[in-house]
Design a protein that fits this description.
By secondary structure, the protein is α/β, with parallel strands linked by helices. It is 32% helix and 21% strand. It is elongated.
Length: 168
């Protein structure tokens, strides 16, 4: 059996990393309606499963809306835009979910947050099993979780085979 060169081993590792990153979901906030006052963000968010590595995409009319990230639930509930930790206004913004936990977003345009233009996002660990989150009856099947589990299994098998080949 031929021993893999360090270069081939490195390429295999890179491929596994890029495949895993490619499985991250992209969530268009608000679905087809986007970031708009007419969207029911509570219903939209409850039908999603957000995982670390996923990306939120806010699409809206620049100048009419914006995206303010709020620091906590108190600011979220009271629509205290003045304490925002970040503010985006380009019309199309992407935000990566980098760690598990809750993040709060609202429109900073006067009155919009109070009218319900805000969303609470709870991200779970990327390797969390589907049973660790609580999808609603209207949730679509979480194919990204199944793909991630399959990729993790393939990576485990590949690393076992590589270890066997390299250390024989």
């Amino acid at each position: 059996m031929e021993v893999l060169s360090a270069g081939r081993f490195f390429v295999l590792i890179l491929v596994a990393v890029f495949l895993r990153q490619g499985l991250a979901a992209k969530h268009a906030v608000g679905g087809s309606q986007g970031w708009d006052e007419s969207t029911d963000f509570d219903s939209w968010a409850s039908a999603q499963t957000f995982k670390v590595g996923d990306e939120l995409e806010f699409k809206y009319t620049a100048g009419l809306h914006n995206v303010a990230e709020l620091p906590n639930e108190s600011a979220f509930k009271s629509c205290d835009i003045g304490v925002a930790v970040d503010s985006l206004n380009g019309g199309s913004n992407k935000i990566k979910l980098t760690k598990p936990g809750v993040r709060y977003f609202a429109c900073g345009t006067s009155g919009h947050c109070q009218q319900g233009m805000k969303v609470k996002i709870t991200a779970v660990s990327a390797d969390a099993s589907p049973s660790s989150s609580t999808p609603t009856a209207t949730s679509p099947p979480d194919s990204s979780a199944a793909q991630l589990q399959l990729l993790n299994f393939i990576a485990y098998v590949a690393s076992s085979v590589l270890s066997f080949v390299l250390f024989m």
